[in-house]
């Protein structure tokens, strides 16, 4: 399968980076074609603004949605966005890996989505192109996340509540909105302070999950 691995962690020696390295090795061993968007390493600009549009439709007033529609039609996004869109067009599965910040995306991933899943490219309300009719239909996505909190806190009845319900704004309202079919999330809880032994065992479990990605993707 063709996989885009979208990764956001600012520290190469972090647990997240160790997971990413293991993932790239494993996916390669499994014969997948993988492209990596390592957003901090790329110094990716995570904020949607006027600079995203090389030939704006209007220069007197900035309307981000209208400019995205216009740039999608004309192919006039800035190069960093066009490069990411090309990868998204190529892909079968997008894997997003990141540490959970305030029970959601860190800004880097949110910004990638704001800019790359642009109106007219990933969805189009004007033509009803959303959810099952979203412009990314036929492709899949999976979230891989680490959480500082223990699983009990993110369970039904726990202080935060059920993580999968809390993340529905991502899995359903964001990824699902563009037509992506979302695979079950992979979450490492209690990732803030881990022994070396636990790090090794978590990496092994993640490798196992990735080894069965193809079967998983077919089943779901
Ligand atoms: C700004 C910020 C917000 C965070 N918010 C949460 C949170 O809402 N829930 C949680 O479980 N952990 C939260 N954490 C903890 C991180 O998710 C945790 O440190 C990370 O997953 C550990 O992975 P790492 O060692 O690769 O950095 C937060 C950390 C930071 C810096």
Automatic annotation (TrEMBL):
<dbReference type="GO" id="GO:0003955">
    <property type="term" value="F:NAD(P)H dehydrogenase (quinone) activity"/>
</dbReference>
<comment type="similarity">
    <text>Belongs to the NAD(P)H dehydrogenase (quinone) family.</text>
</comment>
<protein>
    <submittedName>
        <fullName>Quinone oxidoreductase</fullName>
    </submittedName>
</protein>
<dbReference type="GO" id="GO:0005829">
    <property type="term" value="C:cytosol"/>
</dbReference>
<dbReference type="InterPro" id="IPR029039">
    <property type="entry name" value="Flavoprotein-like_sf"/>
</dbReference>
<dbReference type="InterPro" id="IPR003680">
    <property type="entry name" value="Flavodoxin_fold"/>
</dbReference>
<dbReference type="InterPro" id="IPR051545">
    <property type="entry name" value="NAD(P)H_dehydrogenase_qn"/>
</dbReference>
<keyword id="KW-0560">Oxidoreductase</keyword>
<feature type="domain" description="Flavodoxin-like fold">
    <location>
        <begin position="1"/>
        <end position="208"/>
    </location>
</feature>
<dbReference type="Pfam" id="PF02525">
    <property type="entry name" value="Flavodoxin_2"/>
</dbReference>
């Amino acid at each position: 399968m063709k996989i885009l691995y979208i990764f956001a962690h600012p520290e190469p020696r972090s647990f997240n980076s160790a997971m990413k390295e293991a993932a790239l090795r494993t996916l390669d061993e499994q014969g997948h074609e993988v492209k990596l968007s390592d957003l901090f390493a790329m110094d990716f600009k995570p904020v949607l603004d006027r600079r995203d549009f090389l030939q704006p439709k209007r220069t007197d007033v900035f309307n981000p949605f209208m400019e995205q529609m216009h740039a999608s039609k004309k192919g006039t996004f800035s190069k960093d966005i066009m490069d990411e869109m090309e990868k998204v067009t190529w892909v079968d599965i997008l894997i997003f890996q990141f540490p959970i910040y305030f029970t959601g995306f860190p800004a880097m991933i949110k910004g990638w989505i704001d800019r790359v899943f642009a109106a007219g490219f990933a969805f189009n309300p004007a033509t009803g192109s959303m959810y099952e009719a979203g412009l990314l239909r036929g492709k899949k996505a999976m979230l891989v996340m680490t959480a500082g909190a223990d699983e009990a806190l993110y369970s039904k009845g726990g202080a935060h509540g059920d993580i999968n319900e809390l993340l529905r704004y991502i899995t359903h309202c964001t990824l699902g909105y563009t037509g992506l079919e979302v695979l079950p999330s992979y979450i490492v809880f209690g990732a803030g302070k881990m022994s070396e032994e636990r790090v090794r065992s978590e990496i092994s479990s993640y490798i196992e999950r990735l080894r069965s990605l193809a079967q998983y993707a077919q089943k779901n």
